[in-house]
Every structure is written in structure tokens, then in C-alpha cells.
Predict the 3D structure of the following.
Amino acid sequence: MMLAIALFISGCTAKEPSRFAEAQKESNQPGVVAVKKDATQGSQFNKYFPKPGAGYERVYTQEKKGFAEAKLKKDGKDLAMLSISDTSSLPAAAAKYQNTTEKINGFPAMTMGNTQTGVLVGKYQVKVLSRDPAFTKADREQWISKFDLKGLSQLKS
């Protein structure tokens, strides 16, 4: 009897929507494309990442159409995530740089929250995300400047 009541009550309870439900709903709208067909292949971004050295290690973690990402490690500790993404699939990512007054190596830059710094290089967004509290905004800006931003600005997809 108790089992029947429990099943009845749980069956009548409204389910809470998944935290991914809204994103799924948006991505299924007509005309929405997750990654544009002409987005740059992630493998083309690798040569623009900072070179490892001075005790730092660069470990590529993800590479797909329109995106590449690497961990920055030192002494086995994850310090930051380094990434390059093609904003042609997500124009809002590029649009947020329009009103910024910050620059890194001549490119529009901005700080996002307490842990991210990014720069827009043409249609490419270069970001550094702190994974360790000791990795500061100044560290993120320094590592962004170690990317080959000039070379990336000349990349044709």
C-alpha cells in the first residue's frame, strides 16, 4: 500500500526543468547553427598558442571545429586554461568587445568576472581562465600577450 502511494505521489509531482533545457530549446530553433560550416578548424589554432618553457607545460585538452584549448601547468598544478575560439558561430562573443577601452598588444581586451581575461583578434577570441587563485589578472594578461596574436590576426579560415 505504501509503495503504491509513494509511486502515485512521485508520478504526480511536476519535474523541475533540466539546467540544460533552455540551451537545448535555443539550439533547436530554426536557423541556429552550433558551429558554422566555415568556422576555422581547431587544429589550425595550435601554432598560435604560447610555447611551453621556464617550468611551464602546455597540455592540449580539446580541439574541434572553431575551438582549441590547452591547460597551462607548472609543477604538475593546473594554473590556467588557454583557448582560441572562432566567434563566427557566436557573434555575441565578439560584440562584447566593441565598447572596451582595454587593449593587449593593440587588440581589444576585457576582463570577465574575477577569473577570465580575453582579447578579440579579428573574429577570434583568445581567452585565459585562471584555475588557481594565485594566477592573477596580470598573469592572464601576460599569457595572452605570449600568444602569436599578430599571426592569428592573419589567419584565413
